[in-house]
Amino acid sequence: MSFARNQKTIAKALKPYGVIVHSLRKTYAYTLKSAGIHVTTAAKLMGHSNPMMTLKVYTQVKDDETALAGIELAKYIFA
Q1: Which pLDDT belongs to residue 51?
Q2: Regarding predicted confidence, which is higher, 23 or 59?
Q3: Residue 19 burial (CB < 10 Å; 0-12/13-18/19+)?
Q4: pLDDT value at position 2?
Q5: Residue 57 to residue 23: CA distance in whole angstroms
Q6: What pLDDT, in 10s, does the model give residues 63-77?
Q7: Helix axes of 3-14 and 21-34: crossing angle, nearest 10 degrees
Q8: Residue 8's domain spans which residues?
Q9: 21-60 burial string, b = 16+ CB within 10 Å, else e?
Q10: How many CB atoms lie under 10 A from the CB of residue 3?
Q11: Residue 55, Ramachandran bin (φ over 0: left; ψ between -120 and 50: alpha; else beta)
């Protein structure tokens, strides 16, 4: 059973909750990123032939991630 064949059925089941399939894909991609999964692995898991698609469309940076990156960089430089 492929996702593509069942996308309409899934979309219909999600509609009463105000959830769309694309939102689930974005959440999945962000969860992979948050778990430290490398982008090439995430792209493969999402069915993308090019990891740039995963980077451009499905990943986002949260404000707290920017702050944490600065902290980690400072630890690395001044350790």
Answers
A1: 92
A2: 23
A3: middle
A4: 59
A5: 12
A6: 788 888 899 999 999
A7: 110
A8: 3-78
A9: eeeeeeeebbebbeeeeebeebbeebebeebeebeeebee
A10: 10
A11: alpha
Tokens encoding 69: 């990156």
Residues in the chain: 79
Give the C-alpha separation, 38 to 23, whole Å: 21
What percentage of the chain has pLDDT greater than the value 70? 94
The Cα–Cα gap between 46 and 37 comes to: 12
Q: Could you give the angle at the alpha carbon of 77 between the alpha carbons of 73 and 79, nearest 5°?
A: 110
- Count of domains in the chain? 1
